[in-house]
Specification:
single chain, 435 residues
């Protein structure tokens, strides 16, 4: 496909997303199935164009004075890729499936449009209704954080220390030109191509042999800050596909007892193969019955562990507001009702974690969110409901302490301050048994 034809395809996908309010991955998949002549390189480039446009949807529409898919794509080429008006005009020729030529109005907006007087939600590319929550989290740093959240995310991997060292893995992957991650001691950062895409890491022999997993540096740090150590009894209560379970197993050196579960059995499906590949030992407990939704009527597969865990990691269900660099469509589909649903789920899972922790045990609460309702408010609510739980400060390495933002009850990692996805981590400790 020609560059112009790829732009036309991206506009078509953006229109589908806008009209049907569907996830971008679904729209891209359907477009590919309907246009089988497009090669893998074409599909990758179209996906990058679409994701970039969604990252800058509000600001691109502002400078173009139009929120149509075509206008948003044109504006994003200037804002996200830094293309000049003339360069963009050379792509919009109307020839060989390219989009129609730029109008005089479009060229003028490209040349003169500015974000100088744009409101925060436009300049920061987020829904207007969410700004008060984000402002309470970031204060004067709000706009820099939002702009960082609209950039492309890096590609990080976590070296599996059960099988290899970081130095050995970096040497084996020398052709990828990776560099150590700035904060996570077991991480490597792989450069992205000019199109924003990374290499196909899942076909590397070292990946197939379990030497590494693809995992954002922030997620790696969240697992490390849990304080998991060899010999502990550890529960990963919201294990999902197992990313943090694998990290916990490595931190424990496969010594102790590691139990992984999730309220949604379907999310656990990948964990078994990932554990096998990594050589990680963990007991996976899949809830019985139900249709993939949390159901209070199902048998509790964790009941025998109540009061016995040294550490309960709660990687809680959340809006994912900290991962908008990777999932920019999610921010435009988020609604206040969705946030309320997540808050209720967090309350339930924290109450379950409290029953699992032994006297003197720890609960480490993690979200990939930037919203205080899902973070400080959630752990403060649990501490208020349980007089045997107390919030404790996290013990942070100096290199991390300098970069994170301390909140009332935990710490916040964010794209601007740490370069990671947005993660929140807090620690609660259960007091001695008074019975």
């Amino acid at each position: 496909m020609t560059p112009g034809a790829r732009l036309s395809a991206a506009i078509e996908v953006l229109a589908d997303i806008a009209e049907r309010r569907r996830p971008v991955a679904d729209a891209l998949k359907d477009w590919g199935l309907a246009h089988r002549f497009a090669g893998s390189g074409d599909r990758a480039t179209i996906a990058t164009l679409v994701y970039d446009a969604l990252r800058r949807r509000a600001s691109a529409a502002w400078i173009m004075g139009d929120d149509s898919p075509r206008a948003v794509l044109i504006g994003s080429l200037r804002l996200q890729r830094g293309l000049a008006a003339q360069t963009i005009a050379e792509l919009f020729t109307g020839e060989r499936f390219a989009p129609a030529p730029l109008t005089e109005a479009e060229r003028t907006r490209l040349e003169t449009g500015t974000l100088g007087d744009a409101p925060v939600h436009v300049a920061g590319d987020v829904p207007e209704w969410i700004v008060p929550s984000l402002a309470s989290a970031f204060g004067d740093d709000l706009l820099p954080e939002l702009r960082a959240l609209a950039r492309r995310a890096p590609l990080d991997i976590r070296v599996n220390t059960l099988k290899a060292s970081r130095d050995a893995t970096r040497e084996a992957l020398a052709h990828l030109n990776s560099e150590p991650t700035p904060l996570a001691p077991d991480g490597l950062r792989v450069p992205l191509g000019e199109d924003g895409r990374g290499p196909a890491l899942h076909v590397e022999p070292e990946f197939l042999d379990g030497w590494f997993e693809i995992q954002d540096e922030g997620s790696q740090l969240a697992a490390r800050l849990s304080g998991a150590k060899p010999g502990m009894t550890v529960v990963d209560l919201c294990a999902g596909g197992g990313g943090k379970t694998l990290a916990l197993a490595a931190l424990m050196g496969n010594e102790g007892r590691l139990v992984a579960t999730d309220g949604d059995p379907r999310r656990l499906a990948p964990i078994h193969e990932r554990l096998r590949r990594a050589g990680a030992r963990a007991e996976v407990r899949t809830p019985r019955g139900g249709q993939g939704k949390r159901d209070a009527g199902r048998p509790d597969v964790m009941a025998d562990l109540d009061g016995s865990a040294d550490l309960v990691l709660v990687d809680a269900p959340c809006t994912g507001a900290g991962t908008w660099r990777r999932n920019p469509d999610a921010k435009w589909r988020l609604r206040p009702g969705s946030l309320a649903t997540r808050v209720a789920e967090q309350e339930a899972v924290l109450d379950r974690a409290a029953r699992l922790a032994r006297p003197g045990g720890r609960i480490v609460y993690v979200t990939c969110s930037l919203l205080p309702q899902e973070n400080d408010a959630a752990v403060a609510g649990l501490a208020a409901r349980r007089d045997d739980l107390a919030l404790r400060p996290l013990d942070l390495p100096a290199s991390i302490a300098e970069r994170v933002r301390r909140t009332a009850h935990g710490i916040q990692m964010s794209p601007e301050r740490t370069g990671t996805d947005g993660f929140y981590v807090a620690l609660l400790e259960r007091g001695p048994d008074r019975s």
